[in-house]
Amino acid sequence: MLLQKTEKARLELLPGVRTLSLRERSLLLLVDGKPLSDLQAMYNGIGAQIVDNLMRQGYLAGPADLPPPSAAQTAAHNKPSIQRPEPGDALRSLAGARMYLFDTCERLFVRRDPVLAQQFREALRAAKDRASMLDVGEAMFEEVAMTAGAERAASLRERFEQLLPSAPSASEPFDSTQPSALA
Hints:
Elements lengths: L3 E2 L1 H6 L9 H9 L5 H6 L5 H10 L3 E2 L9 H7 L16 H16 L4 H13 L3 H19 L1 H14 L20
Antiparallel strand pairs: 1-2
């Protein structure tokens, strides 16, 4: 079965509009012409959850087995805000949070201060547990606050915290062989 983008989805994909996560937006871009099973298999199987959410929110039209979005959901989602949806538990992992820090380092420090970027990379590679990874992240956010402002650092920190697992364990080791490291 093929899904179709709704008008709401087309508006979401316009330049300057960013209410959905990167994965949700990329899935929306690929919807037309792709079978439902291919979309659901994306992102190591998390695609099924994303497709369901997009259908419930009114971005996709397709199977009749999902209820249409309620008026409250539609009104809440149409608010002009730059809020990102909070990731589900399946998207939360130390590996994902760690990769977010690597990505942040690459985007913000490599060109401006390559030496500092290399120090952050080495510190992230050495971070083998939650506490040490959080320390590196905090140092990175402090540097962002000094160079780009406290508001930018706060938004990066907020997104990072959304990616962390909800049940913290101070002694939880990072294991790059876990499947969550690939998410």
